[in-house]
Here is the input.
Amino acid sequence: MTAPRFFGPEFSELEAADPEIAGVLTDELDRLRGGLQLIASENLTSPAVLAAQGSVLTNKYAEGYPGARYYGGCDVVDRAENLAIERAKALFGADHVNVQPHSGANANLAVYAAFAKPGDAILAMSLPHGGHLTHGSKVSFSGRWFTAIPYHVHRDTELIDYDEVRELALVHRPRIIVAGATAYSREIDFAAFRAIADEVDAILWVDAAHFIGLVAGQAIPSPIPYADVISATTHKVLRGPRGGMLMCREEHARAIDKAVFPFSQGGPLMHAIAAKAVAFREAHSEDFRRYAAQVVENAQSMTTALVESGMRAVSGGTDTHLALLDLSHLGVDGRTAEGRCAAAGITLNKNAIPFDPAPPAVASGIRVGSAATTTQGFDAADSAVVGTLVARAVQAEAGTAAGDRELDSIRGEVAALVGRKPAYPRA
Ligand code: DSN
Here is the structure.
């Protein structure tokens, strides 16, 4: 079989050696091409990123840092890591960058290791209000090894309650204050967090995993002037390979580097680091700035359509790439909505909303994001159509004749829409 576009020439070798895994790759490409990808933490990387990631650099052990490795033969991969570091510094204006974290969670583990001791108090956003597992959940190392103090959004505005953050900081004197979330659609006031951190002499850690791509594209303000340390992922709006990164002030450089290697990781993934370098180069461009602005415009357009179709946008809307929608007054829970959308060719996730009465496995909301569709070339008008398709799918009662007909019909409209602006186009 001829290699489908976006698979390298090695694909025919894979197909001969392992047809089952070759089939997984082609099926996933078909899935990406055939539906709407609205998971807010996903994107579609470029062929150049894919090529760097699927490369011979995966072979090299390079424990240590460029120029100071524990193995020989690292001169070539050193070039990749140095390029990634220098490009990230130029893109974000950071003093120091570490591109070795294998993932966002690994980057976050390194932040704890650099700045806190087991038992220290950490002030971070509550998971059900939009935070992350590694911000103190009991099921993660963060909640098991540290004393997590959760802050919340305000019940009326559904915006971060900065008064509560300050009150909790004054009472608990946390070692670290975390700003950053996975399901919060609004800009974060980094200056307010900095002022609170200074008042209690805490480290300000911005977990920018979700929005770092919008920072790269200058679509939202940068946390760099405010944060002691920033953790991020490279695969969300930033559109790089799956992975993590850290940026910090020069004074913390040694602590951060030691916290990644040797404390929490072994050999870095040099193929992923090379792909990160490619993504940083792609992001440092006028094209990417236009992309980031369009991501926000598309998220807003999709959200407006969802609200006009009867959903409630948590906090009233979005300033970013994602929106959280409350379905409670539609009488549909998040889990059901996710399933109905899947049946219509729309991939998104159920999500807890602040003060959610439903358990997390059911949830009262859904989360949508515009990063992948914008990569496909969707504009604000397309995104409004996406919003109406999602709203129709959520309200189509699967299992009834009328509901199933509606889901089939939406699936056809989704196919037509992604056919006009496909992911990974064939030609
Ligand atoms: N799983 C990511 C997300 O979907 O937001 C966060 O780790």
Observations:
- The pocket of D-serine is lined by residues 41, 104, 132, 182 (CB under 6 Å).
